[in-house]
Amino acid sequence: MDEALNFHYDVDGENFTSAGNASVQVKRKLRQLGFPPELIKRVSIAMYEGEINMVIHANGGKADVLVTPEVITIVLADEGPGIADVALAMREGYSTAPDNVRSLGFGAGMGLPNMKRYTDSMDIQTKVGVGTTITMTVRVS
Amino acid sequence: MKIAKVKELLEAELLCSGEDLENEVFSACGCDMMSDVLAYVKNQAVLLTGLVNPQVVKTAEMMDMRCIVFVRNKRPTPEMMELAEDSGIVMLATSFTLFEACGRLYINGLRGEAE
Ligand SMILES: Nc1ncnc2c1ncn2[C@@H]1O[C@H](COP(=O)(O)OP(=O)(O)O)[C@@H](O)[C@H]1O
Ligand SMILES: [Mg+2]
Question: What value, to the nearest 5°, has the Cα angle with vertex A30 and ends A5 and A77?
Answer without folding.
Answer: 60
